[in-house]
Design goal:
Blueprint lengths: L6 E9 L1 H11 L3 H8 L3 H9 L6 H10 L5 H4 E9 L12
Antiparallel strand pairs: 1-2
Helix pairs in contact: 2-3
């Protein structure tokens, strides 16, 4: 289904929390150790893991590099919402 005219699909990339927990457990690596290895704070990584914040493309690449050979599709989930193209804030379309 295509977005209505004047709307674009805004996508956010979210860490797949259940997968990341499984991978870290299998590799005997803590979230803190992973965060340190990719150059971000453990607090920021915790927010990403809980879905409170979305990782930038650069952080996504760092996570992929640290957890190779895991793939993007295994580690991340893409969320999308319709937003008005003329809305500079990119606010989601309100329903009803």
């Amino acid at each position: 289904m295509r977005p209505e005219k004047g709307k674009v699909k805004k996508m956010k990339v979210k860490l797949n929390n259940s997968t990341i927990k499984m991978v870290l457990l299998q590799r005997d690596v803590s979230q803190n150790a992973l965060a340190k290895s990719i150059g971000i704070s453990s607090a920021y990584f915790s927010q990403i893991a809980r879905g409170v914040r979305y990782p930038s493309a650069e952080v996504q690449q760092r996570i992929l590099g640290a957890l190779a050979p895991m793939t993007f599709d295994e580690l991340f989930v893409i969320e999308g919402s319709d937003v008005h193209q003329d809305d500079p804030g990119g606010h989601p379309e309100k329903e009803g």
